[in-house]
Structure formats: C-alpha cells, structure tokens
Structures
1.
Amino acid sequence: MQIKANNINLEYETFGESGHPAVVLIRGLGTQMIRWPRNLIDGFVEAGFHVVVFDNRDVGLSQKFDSPNLPSPAYSMGDMAQDVVGLLDALGIAKAHIFGISMGGMIAQVVASDHSERTLSLVSVMSSTNNPDLPPPSPAAMATLTGDRDAPTDRESVLQQSVASAKVIGSPGFPQTDDELYAQAAESYDRCHCPDGIARQMAAIMSTGDRRPALARVTCPTLVIHGSDDQLVPPEAGKDTAANIEGAELWMIDGMGHDIPRALADVMLERVVPFFRSVT
C-alpha cells in the first residue's frame, strides 16, 4: 500500500490490531520491507502489538530520488527519520516503539533523539554511532559494500553476488542455505532493483557525522542489540551505541552477524517482547 508521508510516497504494510501499541520496523541499507522474517512480525502481533513495516525512500516501492552529483547527499538521516514520523502521522499513531537494523538503527536513533514525543522505546540493532574512532568493517565485509565496478550487472550475476555477500556478513550461529539466500535475493531483485538508490542512502549515512552528541538527548528506554560475529558493523559499534545512551541495555548475541534469519528472530522475540511490554 502507498501512503503520503513527509511529502513523499512510501510503500508500507501493517499487521495486527490498529488500537494496540505500535512497533515500527526500519530496514537497513538497500533492503526492502519484504526481508523482515515473517515470524518476527507474527511474534510481535501475537504478543499484542500493531506492527508497521515500510520501504525506506529510494528502495523497494517507495519514492525514488535523483542526485546526479553523487556522493553529494540527496537527503540526510534526519530526512529519513522524518519519513518515519510522517508515516506515524499518516497512520494516526501518536507514539511507537522504534526498532531499526543497521542503517535503520541509525534512523531509529535519530527518531529517538529528535522526536522523543513520538518514541515509546528504541531498539537499535547491529547499528553504530558513526564514531570515527570505531573499527572499520573487515576487508571481506567492506567488499560487499563497495562491490566490483566491472562486475556483470545481469540478473543472475547480481543474484549470485548477493548470495556471496550474504554469506560473508551473515550469522554463523544461525546459518541459512544458499537456496534460501538465492530465493530472498531473487524476490528482492524482481520487486525492485535500484542500485542508484542504495548509493544515495550510503551518501546520507556518510554525511551524517558522529551521532554521539545526539544520542545524549535520548531519554526513552533503549535496548541495543549487536552480534558478536558482525563483520560489517563490528561489535564495538554496538557497545559504543549503548555507552552513549543513558540507561541503555546492551545485548550481545553470540553467533549473530549482520542479518536476522528466522531462527535468530525467534531468539530476539524472547527478549524484545518483554522489553516492549515493560515500557507499554
């Protein structure tokens, strides 16, 4: 479904009763809302929450932008956070639990710091503060971001590269098969393949700067989740996030990399549902 939010068109879907406490799930760089494990969504709904998922601007079926001068940012993390607030406005939701992964965790952090009146709680997953002193991704993980400019761009080549990248940054304690990864990549490619949008999102991330001063303004209950085996956003980033939000809980998950497979979603529900309930 399409909705006008923050003066742009966003693709979204809701699950559960609209009168229940809301949970907004925010995806990471270049990934679409269809990549949320359905058992994660169903687990929140069964626990009594109203779940909202959406495609960030520039990916999936949401509005695309144009920036001929990349890497100059076409928009900022603040703009993407305002998209979330605009979505809440359009859906008539006063406050929500904000759950974001990777880039989505950065957006969620901005929502919590700049729009505290709309935030019941913050769950920042496999994300970072953009502290320049944090360790970089592993070389293999960095390669999944930069890619090979001379690599073939036909559908099959893109899918094979997606599978290879997912295996590099995935969760060794919660492995997925090549067939599962291929099916996910194919579904995303066929729904929307927009590499320029991913580049614009990356430019927004890079232009954000150090968010630690903003995180000092976060006052809502906060849970920071990070994987001990994350090669793309190293564990130190999660620790730094928790350290810069007063009262934040830090949950390091052994065997978790930079994804949320179905098996890991079940593990997360056991901790996140009670956390949301304690706030609500």
2.
Amino acid sequence: MSNPSTATQAGIVVLIPVYNDWTSLHTLLRELGAVSFAQGIELSVVVVDDGSSQPSPSDLLDGLPAGSLRGLEIVHLHLNLGHQSALAVGLSEIYRRHNPDLVIVMDADGEDRPQDIERLLTAHQRDPNAFVVAQRARRTEGYWFRVLYGLYRLLFRLFVGKGLDFGNFCLIPRALLGRIAFNPMSWNHLAAAISRSGIGIVRVRTDRGTRFHGRSSMSLPRLVSHGLSAVSVFLDVAMIRVLIFSTLLMSAAVLGVLTTLYLRLFTELAIPGWATSAVGLLSIIGLQGLILSTIASFLVLRSRSGDQTVPAVDASKFVAGVERFLRDD
C-alpha cells in the first residue's frame, strides 16, 4: 500500500488518458459531474496528458454542477507514450500519491459511458475482491472496423488459447491497485494484464457510447499495434504454442521425406522426378519449422530474462509535471 503519511484519501478516482482531445474531456467531465451529483457519488478525476501537442485549457471545470467533483488533476507526460503506457503511468501515480477506495479507468471520447459507473459499483459490491470490467453488449463502429476487430480477437484466441472480451473501461479495488501498478505487463496492455493476473474478473454488459466529438483515430496500423501489445502480455504462452506448431510441422516434414524415400526406393509407385521435388519441398518446410521453433525458443527465454519496465518504479521518470484544479464550493 501507499505510505499513509504521503497519501491522501481520494474515495473513487476516475483515471482518463487524453491525447489532444480536450473538447471531449470537457464534455466527459460535465457528464461525470452530473452522474456524481445525481447519484451522490464522490468522484475525483486524474487525467493523464499523453504528451499532447495542444495545451490543456484552463476552463475544464466550467459548466459542472457545484460540488459535483472533489477535484481534477492533470498528469503531464514528457512525451507521447501511447494509450496503454499512459494508463500505466496514471495508475502508478494514483497508487503512489493517492489512497483511493476504487479506481475507475475510462476513455475520454464518450464511448465509455459515465452512467455505467453505477453498474460497475454495484458489481463491485457483490464481489469486492475482483476486477470489474465492462464487456461490450453492442458496438457502434463501422463495418470494416468490426471485421478487423473480430479478426484481432480470433488471432488472439489462436495464439493465446483464450479470448479477451473487454477493454480499458474497468474498476480496480484498492487492494488490487498495487497488483497492477507493479505488474510490468500493464505497461503494454492493461486489459491483457488484468486477464493474466489470475485474479477474479466480474464482467458487466454495457453498450458502447457515441463519441462526443470527431472520429476514432484507431486506424489499421494502430489496431495491429494494439493487438500485438495484447499478445505481448502472453508472449511466452504464444511462443510456446508456436513452438509446438513448428515442432509438429518439422515432424510432419521429416515423416513426409521418409515416406517419399520409401516409395521411391522400395515401391514402383514413384513417378520419375516426383520424389526429388517432394523431398526438396518437404525439406524446405522442415527447415522453416526449425527456424520458427528456434526463434520461438529464444523469444521465450528473452521474455523471462530481459529487463522489464515496472510502472510503479519507472513511471515517475516520464512525468513532466502535475496540474491541479480544485473547487472551492
């Protein structure tokens, strides 16, 4: 746990990563304030400015109901780390300087709906020792994005052996915050790190909201990078599956070569020239399997022996400063 002498009791902290999308953040803060005021929930907000090229505006709290939020804090990063690493920095800063009962992670664009926070809290009350994640019941993206996202989920299941059916929108209890803050895997992909943590997960079905402003910046390269980041959390599992596949491929190639030689030397079934071509093709397949298995083996060893970024230890190096907005009413 954080040192009580330096931490402040923060109740429920909402963590929001932002890259230049200050207009959407302003709208989200107003909706969070309305939800907080209507439901009697005390919320504090920590925003991680992921190296935005546009400065944060000074009127972010304008239009909020009086007393709806306890405060707003913006953690500015030296550079753009990417969505997942920015989340890891934010969680580490909350762990290090706050003492929250709960942390709720959500995006600023409006697709994570503030009104669903109450559902996450209700699920947490039923199982207070588990992560609570939002599982999408309905998506609003375009056709091709849904197709590519479905392909990503299929490949993830193929490489890892299980699905990943939730994203960043989640609730993290105080007792589990350190598990994430000190987990190197959360630097690459928060949802995958939660999935691999071995701790109970409660899923809450939610609809995806409509974006406040603009269009999604999740292009094909970003989606591929996002998928690879998720797989990297299970790199050893994925590479072991690749190793098993490549070993089976080599075994099949060797068996094919032996069968071809037998047919060529001891039977009358071989057609002139056919055996040589078959042995050559199978040898190439076997060599590819050997190369693939070798690479997979070294990647598994590298993942277990290499230096890893531990957010709770390394995150503060990326923080350029903290800007605090406090309400007097």
3.
Amino acid sequence: MGIGTERNKLCYCGSRKKYKKCHFGREQEDPLKVSDVVQAEKAAKKKTCSHPAKLQCKGPIVRAHTVQRALLEQIAQSGEVYGIKHGVAELRRAGGRLEMRKLGLSAASTFTGFCAHHDKATFAPIEDHPVEPTKFNALLLACRALSRELYAKQAALTLSPIIRQSDRGRTNEEQVAIQKFAGEFTAGIDVGLRDLAYHKGQYDKILVSGDYSKVRGLAVELSALPEFMTSGGILPEYSFSSEVLQNLADTKTLEWISFSLISSKGKGLAVFSWLDDPPQRSCERLVTSFSSLPTNEQSDALTRFIFEFFENVYISPHWWDGLDVKSRSALTSRLYTAAHPAQVRDAGCLLDDGLRLVSYHVDQAIVL
C-alpha cells in the first residue's frame, strides 16, 4: 500500500480518511512520547459522583476504595499489596508485559467516583461494620463494583485515540497490528459501556427505592482470611463446567453479575450478586455451576475465577512471593486475559487446572 491508486483508498485503520491523508508515511513520524501517554491517562481520570442522588452531593470527590482499605491492611506487608498498575504508559514501560507491582494502600483499589458524602453515607454498612451475608450488603458491594467498572471503561474509551497514535514510527506490519488491537479494544469497550449503563440504571433504582426483593446472590463463607481480595463485575461468559452462558458478541443487552472476595470477622467472604428482573439466567447458571462443584474444590475454583475475570485484584506479598514460578506465571497469564478486553477465552478456562494455591476451604454457602 502507499503507491499509485492505493493512496486514494480509505485507510485500513477505519478513520474514513484516505490512506494518503492518514497512515501514509506513518513509519517516518516521531514515536509517541511517554509523557503524552501519561498526560492522556491523567485527563481520562475524571472526578465525578456515581450516586444517583446527585443533588444531595456534598464535599469533594474522594478516592473511593472498591475493596475497603481496612480489609487490605489485613493482607498487606509494610503497607503494600501486590496489584496491577494500569495504563498504556505502564505497558510501554514493561515492554507490553503485564507485571505485578507493589502498591501503597492509599492507591490500591481506589477510583475518584463518589463525593465524600455519598462514599461515607452509602457504604458505611460495609465499611464500618463486618460484612454480613445479606441482600442489602450484596447490593452495596454490587453498586460500588458497578460504579468502578463503568468509571474504568469510560476512562479507557477516552484513551482509544492515544492507543491509535502509538503506531507512529513503527513498521507497516506493526501499524496494522496496533490498529487491529485498537479497533477490537474500542469495540469491546463500547459494548461494555452500553451494558453497564443499563445495569447501573437498574441498580440505582433499587438503591434509591430501598426495595431489595429483586437482589439475588450467593454468599460463600471461607474458613480463613483470603490471600487476595477483589471487587468487580463481569458479563458471564462460561460456567465452571465450561458451558457457554451468553455470547458476548450478541447485540442484545448482556447480563451482568458482581463478585467480591473480602474479609469479614477475620475470615473470607465471597459474594456473587445479580438482579432478578428480568431473570438473569446466565448469572444463575454460573452460580449453580459453582455450587455443584464438590465443596473441597470450590476454594481453588474461586481462585481460577478471580484471576481469569478480574484485574482489580490485590494480593498478599507474603503469599505471592511464596508461590513457585509456574504458579505465578499461570495466575499472571489469567490476569492478562482479565485486563485486556480483546483477549479471547477458552470455554474451559474455569475447569480444574491442577493448581492448589490457597490454604482455606469453604465453610458454607448462603443463598441470599
């Protein structure tokens, strides 16, 4: 491409510009500066309150924790936990690899998504008290997770232009690969935003009304403090038995389920939560497939689930550093899939991989 009539064709990158006015000569341009990427990432991190009652907002926008700081302190070492440091600049620094980094507790699991009043008043029941396995607490965990997921995807979408510019100074083959990734990345974010916005509206109605009858969930009590914690939500894709739950390429609104693994009363508490109006069959089938596993396999199944689908994971340094290279590599590979929306999963991603990495077991599961 780039000679004769090829120059007048529409550019392959999807910009709708002619090739001669878009990617022609891109390999001769100066590479994107890391400072430009860092500036774009800072601009993408908006400060906004996600609570539906915005007229009641008070105080500044704060760094809200998706996993309570007090809980992270229980697995921290010298005030730090392991986690993924997100961003295009971080990936460039690491040569495209996903690296586990030590993060201070003031930064781990935070996002600027609530005003001081709503962060405190709304989430006090799960911040200031042990988290009991109730519908109300499951709703609060889900609302915070959903707000963070929506915030993160909105920020990611604003980075699409800078990702497309990252092919400056690269070979033609590299440019094609980068533009292909950027297109898939943006398409995935667009679909995610569509579905998350819908579910956010549904959860906001319940939060305001105080009627929790449509909340469904499963609370799994563990025998000991978990070695890692997370809070997030997914569009269920595959079950624990490799059943296809829903096609993520479907044009209809996809179902969403929240999940949190936290500490309560010095032990672990895992909470699946979804809404039952309209019935969320893929969510029910996911949780049923987990409940159908032998009890002695469920704690390891949760580990696979968390690292496969959630990038918002915070890990005990003592535990992570004690893993062998094979185990760390397997978990990092799963996290890479979780952190990149364009990555394709295998239907058997949650099947037993033979790794036995956690010391706790499931005490009981409570249907909410």
4.
Amino acid sequence: MGMSILKTKIEIIKYIASSNNEKLSSNDGTNYMENGNGIEIIKELLVTEIGETAHAYLHKNIDLSNNVTMLQSTSTRFNVEKINLNKFKNIVNIKRVNDIRWLNKFFEVVNSKLPIDGIFIGCVETKRERKARILRKSPSPFNWLHYSIDFIHKRIAPKIWLTKRLYFSLTKGKNRVITKAETLGRLISCGFKIIDEVEINNYTWFVVKKVSLPLYDNNPSYGPIYKMPRIGKNGKIINVYKLRTMHPFSEYLQEYMIEKYGYDNEGKGKIKNDFRATTLGSFFRRYWLDELPQLINVFKGEMVLVGVRPLSRTRFNEFPDEMKKRRTQFKPGCFPPYVALLMPNEEDNIKAEKIYLDQKEKHPFWTDIKFFWLSVYNIVTNKIRSA
C-alpha cells in the first residue's frame, strides 16, 4: 500500500472519529469528500469492518457521505458526549452494544445529541445469534458443553446477587449477553422509535428515530416479578403484578410488536412471532403460574378474582367505546370471562366480556361464582393457557 493511500485512510479515520470537522482535507489541502475519494475510502473501511451487506444496509437508510452523519465505533458514552449539540442528524455506531456496560446511559446520551426525528443506527449480537455462533464453532457434544459453560457464566452469574458484582467487576460489562427484545425495549425507553431491524452476518442491525426524551426509568423490570401499567376501575392506571415470562424491557415493545407483526392467525389476541417470551416463561404461561402475583393486586383492593381483564392502554383503545365505558365500571379480575367461556380469540374476547357483564349486572354474586369454577376447570384440564 502506497504512503499516499495510507495517509488518506488516516485522514478518513480522523474524520470518522471527529465531532468537529466540517470537511475532510489532507495536509496538502485536498478535500477528499468533494472529489469522491473520501466516500470510496469510507466505504472500504466500513466494508472491512462490518461487511458488504451491512454497509449496503447503512447506505440504504442514511447518506454516509454528508456532514450531518456521525460515524463511530465506540463502547463508551464519553465519545458521544463530546459531539457538538445539534451538529449531526444521524449517528451510526458500528460497535456492537454487547460491549457497552451502561447501555441505557449510552442510549440516553445519543438521544441528547440528536434532534427530533434524528436517526441512530447500531447493532447487537442477540442471545439467539450468540448461541448459534457458539454451536457452530466446534462439533457436538463439545459445542453444547461450551454453550452450557457460557450460559452459566454470561446468563446466570450476572443475575445472582452473590456473583453479580464480581461478574461486572471482572468483565466491565464487555461481551454481555442481551436479547433482541431487551435491546429494542431499551431503545424505546430511551426515547426512540424502531424504524427497522434486520439480521446481517449474525448481528441484528437496528435503525431508530428520536421521537421524545428518554423516560429515565429508575426501576426497570429486571426481577422475577414485575409491574405492568393497566387500565383499572374508572379508567385509573394500576400496576398489575406478574411473574416474568418475557425478557427485560419487553413491556416497551407492545405497540411496536402489534404494529409490525399483528395478532396470530387464530385471532386469540396473542401477538404473532412474539420473540419476547422466555423458554421458562412459556412453561409458566401454560399452567397460569405467571398470574399468581396478581393476588397482590387483589389484597390491595385493585382487582378481584373474577372480572374483565386488565388491559394495556394500547389494547384498551382497540375496544368499542361502549365496552370501554362498561368494563371500567368494575374492577378487573384475575380470571377474565374468556377463560370461563373458552373464547380467547380477539373478537370473541369482547363477546365473552359482554356476556359476563350482562349476567353480572343482573346477578353479580352468582355470576362470579359460576365464572370462577368454569375458569378453574378449563385451566386444570389444560383447555386454555395464559396470554
């Protein structure tokens, strides 16, 4: 490689890392961005780092050559902090987010440097992609032994109180295991809207747009029991307790999942291709174990054993106005009507609630008794499973 080309590449690298340059010029005054050399060398560098397909994906979503796009490869928010405010409309970080320890803080800083509708592009090696990579590395059964050790080290140790502090002290948060659901959920909680996400070369690339300031959630749902904001009696928002069946930060993805995937073909009110549920969570749902913490809401007087289901704001707004008014006259219940009547699909769910409310308004006590025992029978005989 000639010295002139090497020198040009050094200048390009400086441009990528800088937050202040308006244009890129070499020591002899040549403007590489104006004569086209800079664009080609940026492409060459990016293709070397992330591959041709990933580069094409970046190019498809933003203009990599203009002065309002910031290209970085960093795992520290310090390098984002030094970017001048309101200077860039697009920020691209080709460093995978698995190596960023304080992930929400990093996303919050990116948010602060972008205007409304500004674009942020990044990538993550998801839990599923990591598993596939490990299993490809060596023949069976050694690959499964490797994966088992990695699972204990990377998935269990960071979550146990006795080992959590030691784990982060040794790893500094590098090479963490993170799911697709958690990554996208964190981005939404930090004020971004998901525009697109795609898997390329065993990484998931995401394109997000700034739509608001971060929520600065000081109590993210990371524990085994978490609270979901739901519509209660008289339209009051209550926090419904549930045993975790989804990956952390999944609650922020509800609207995105419905918009992107819709409901399943059977119309059971369940989201199609829902990647948010954990393996253990699916077991809990099958036997309704995830609903047990709702007894806390019953003891607090926010819910009853039998009643309309506590809904998210998004799902509540999908109901007819008449049903919105009728169902908020009562406390929501742990056992919703569709369980007793075996009517889980989207349209029949509303019909089930109408049947229940019609009967409850006439015979409140006996209606709840009947619906309770029908629900218990259907759950015990495995005729229906938790949503």
